[in-house]
Amino acid sequence: MIEKEEFENKFSNFKKTVNTLKNAIVYAKKNENHKEFSMFKDSVIQRFEYTFELSWKFMKYILEKNDDETETRSPKQTIKSAFKIWYIDDIDKWFLISDYRNKTSHAYQEDIADDLYYKIPNFFEEIQKFYESIKIKYEQWYFRQNKKSFGEVFK
Q1: Which helix (H) or strand (E) holds 17?
Q2: pLDDT computed for residue 129 by the predictor
Q3: Per-residue pLDDT tens for 122-154?
Q4: Which of 2, 44, 95, 96 is deepest in the core (most CB within 10 A)?
């Protein structure tokens, strides 16, 4: 069973990372001709990395709290489980996101970083869809459980 306070804390942290990635993407896009663009690009990539980490760990948290039998030992197992119960709808894109996360976190290669930078907005859309899905599902769950809305958590 999901505890309200624990969920709100984890969801709030997840929301913050989603927003920091969104802001970095927007800022970097506006400054692609700036002489310091490589730093902006690196910031987007780093924010992508920790947003993905928090995404799959949040999936894991929800899955484990709702079903003790769910396989969640690794990001890919967690993604498979989240796909099976409709938390996400594009498993191939999530696997690609995970693969890129692995490529960039172990060694820096300029060509991979450049490729990833231009893919991140598309990846962000998928992460955003997961965030919105959880927001809607758990807002409804809270309402049913407590006979009132806890929408403030999601603003």
Answers
A1: helix 4-30
A2: 96
A3: 999 999 999 999 988 877 765 556 554 444 444
A4: 44
Annotated domain spans of the chain: 4-154
| Residue closest to 90 by CA, chosen among 139, 132, 125 | 125
The answer to whether residues 51 and 20 touch, using CB atoms and an 8 Å cutoff, is yes
Instruction: Please check whether residue 113 is in contact with residue 122, taking contact to mean a CB–CB distance below 8 angstroms.
Output: no
Instruction: Give the domain 4-154 fold.
Output: Four Helix Bundle (Hemerythrin (Met), subunit A) (1.20.120)
Which single residue is written with the structure tokens 């409804």? Answer: 140
- For the chain, the average pLDDT equals 86
Q: Which residues fall within 8 angstroms of residue 44, CB to CB, at 6 or more apart?
A: 21, 24, 25, 28, 117, 120
Query: Residue 50 class from Cβ within 10 Å (0-12 exposed, 13-18 middle, 19+ buried)?
Result: middle
Asked whether the predicted pLDDT for residue 65 surpasses 90, the reply is no
Kindly state the helix (H) or strand (E) to which residue 86 belongs, with its residue range.
Answer: none
44 within 8 A of 21, measured Cβ to Cβ: yes
**pTM of the prediction?**
0.84
